[in-house]
Amino acid sequence: EAQLVESGGGLVQAGGSLRLSCAASGFPFVHYHMYWARQAPGKAVEWVATFTQDGKQTYADSVKGRFTIGRDNAKNTLSLQMNSLSPEDTAVYFCHNSDGLRGQGTQVIVSS
What is the mean pLDDT of residues 67-73? Predict the structure, then answer.
């Protein structure tokens, strides 16, 4: 069964950092574009970052320069290093692949 499982969320003060991880299984991870997205309470899903199968990384303007997406094809994992967090980054973060498979998400709360 194909699945994605996120971890690493939590409560952090503004200006702090968190590192999220996404463990993939049941599908050929190396052949997929992978994404991080987030959804804040009462808001639509927002794309955060992409790591393509050929190594290209792109970011939403709202996180550029603060977040770094990573990928380890040997371990079938996707990561998101988040620095200089602000309350506006509070959301459920989830990873998904280019087939639309997504994980259950991990909650990030940034206190002011």
Answer: 98
